[in-house]
């Protein structure tokens, strides 16, 4: 059983198709209604007869939506073997949500942090009956994390002096630090957390960004979403990546993230800061 966020397009949709084809129970999530409808239909069309496909809709800039989706998932299954925290991307500007959060940090970091926390009972339940290391949580991170030298602890959501690319880089550095701390906390239960760098992928990614990002993406050679989906499938299922978590992968191989993404003190601090921010909005 696999939960894949951001399955309404790009990497998440391609990953959902792989698992539906393999006969898994797939729960996908998406935001934009028409993309969700189309993706749900296409994933179902490709699914093996023994597969089951469920599709949920919600906006991950809103933590209330993340919690609602977690509850809907809990109604569909009591057992999750793989969680792929993929939903995310860039924005074309500064957006403050109804809960007072900055949208890039909310979607790329706080939403996966909260969703993972809310789905822990289902992940732990799966881990009880599964061989050690087979229950996995995979974060879709990005090369861009390296441009952020350190988390801005005084202003994690960059509310003072926001810039689109800086916000994205910091949020993806947060994805890697979160994966590190998550793995440290969950490995005693036999759950492994890993992160993936998808590379430059031809998806809807750039369309959500500003001109700078759109130009940069237009100049970069991109792979199709099926390419990182293959690495995500490998990370979710292969025995060799179930042994030690907190690692970073690209193209079916381990890679080294920037030194600031390997900072255990920052990883632990980010966990506490994330809990604190969520507490301020009642989550
Ligand atoms: N493409 C690249 O070159 C690249 C490189 C490095 C990392 N990544 C990362 O890969 C992941 C997948 O991106 P992609 O390239 O597949 O882009 P994509 O085609 O735009 O897909 C992003 C997915 O995330 C969902 N999503 C985005 N914001 C959301 C929100 N606020 N609430 C709920 N769902 C949301 C989208 O939903 P809707 O479409 O339904 O709105 C879509 O399903 C992202 O985390 C991105 O940062 C991509």
Describe this structure in words.
The structure is a single chain. 45% of the residues lie in helices and 13% in strands. With 283 residues, the protein is α/β, with parallel strands linked by helices. The chain has one domain (2-280): 3-Layer(aba) Sandwich (Rossmann fold), CATH 3.40.50. It has an eight-stranded mixed sheet, with helices on both faces. The radius of gyration is 17 Å and the shape is globular. The chain starts with a strand and ends with a helix. The model has no long low-confidence stretch (mean pLDDT 97). The structure holds NADP nicotinamide-adenine-dinucleotide phosphate (NAP). The site of NADP nicotinamide-adenine-dinucleotide phosphate has 30 residues, from α1 and α2. Keywords: Oxidoreductase. InterPro entries: NAD(P)-bd_dom_sf (IPR036291), SDR_fam (IPR002347).
